[in-house]
């Protein structure tokens, strides 16, 4: 197990990068504590795999250093870093039995056969592979093969870190749920450093204690699932986490009131005061779950029009327009939604202000 430090990392795939846009990773500067479960979450092309490959040693970064427990490993290849990796698609020996596939990383390192057996049986049990141990991997379904790949990643108990690159892509949705939970349980038992790359927010938020959200080659926020939901530090985190994502409205400030065309929305006084000093485009943001919908007007509410109501069984998503902008509200199943004009309440503690995309705190 290791504490992993990424020190001023940047990476370009070009031989002679000129501007910032030539860099797949712009600036990554983080410490990942020993024994934690981390997820790197972001859309396709944001640089997740590049970063994972820098951590594993498949790529040497253009700039910066990678330290494992304070030791500089930037130039070391993966086989010298004592890590295990699990990729998107199964990596195993088709002609070997499941047992021998799981045993391979241990036997390869000269571990005593008694210890190999003990560890393989433990990992097989954790991943529900025990009934398949004597079968050849070739005959198994894609998801069972990927479980073997996971097992091969988990079987060595003394690795510095286990790196997972979208490991549940080939697993069917129901089994994904089970496997995510299993991986979390296994992490809680082993307390190894797990780094898990995914574009799927549910996967990241259920698996990890800390999630790093990546956007255009940077980690814009690292936080617990609750932090990312309640205190998104960048508008991208607000937009990407949650379903639907956070609502954003461009605004100007008058005292502690945010003006969205004709409408005035009251903000927390301290945040508004900082907003007056901030530079760049101002936007207010509110999560759909915190937007209140009322049939009657009351102090501080603003008028909006209901455009659509989607009933998703256990809750409703209401689409509204306010000053020509579209907003979404997430309401409990049993709350009636008036037709036509309604009044929106923006609770100040949940109404955030962003300047040029960054949260004003
Ligand atoms: P995905 O989920 O689609 O794999 P990602 O977040 O993992 O995306 P990366 O694969 O790290 O992103 O890619 C980051 C950027 O670097 C993208 O613009 C991509 O086109 C570019 N890139 C990745 N690999 C290479 C390469 N070998 N040569 C040149 N450019 C590359």
Topology record:
Blueprint: E1 4-11, E2 25-32, E3 37-41, H1 48-56, E4 63-68, E5 71-72, E6 83-86, H2 98-107, H3 113-126, H4 142-154, E7 161-165, H5 173-190, E8 194-198, H6 201-207, E9 210-215, E10 218-223, H7 225-230, H8 235-240, E11 247-250, E12 252-254, E13 257-260, E14 263-266, H9 269-277, E15 282-286, E16 292-294, E17 302-311, E18 315-322, E19 325-332, E20 341-345, E21 352-355, E22 358-359
The protein binds adenosine-5'-triphosphate.
Low-confidence stretches: none
Name the hetero compounds present.
adenosine-5'-triphosphate
Number of strands: 22
Task: Give the strand order, joined by hyphens, for the main sheet.
Answer: 6-7-8-3-9-10
> Biggest β-sheet: count, sense, barrel?
6 strands, mixed
Mean pLDDT: 93
Molecular shape: globular
* Helix percentage range: 25-40%
Task: Look at the helices and sheets and give the structural class.
Answer: alpha+beta
**Rg, nearest Å:** 24 Å
The fraction of residues in strands falls at 25-35%
Please report the distance between the alpha carbons of the first and last residues.
Answer: 35 Å
Write down the oligomeric state. Answer: single chain
Per DSSP, the total helix count is: 9
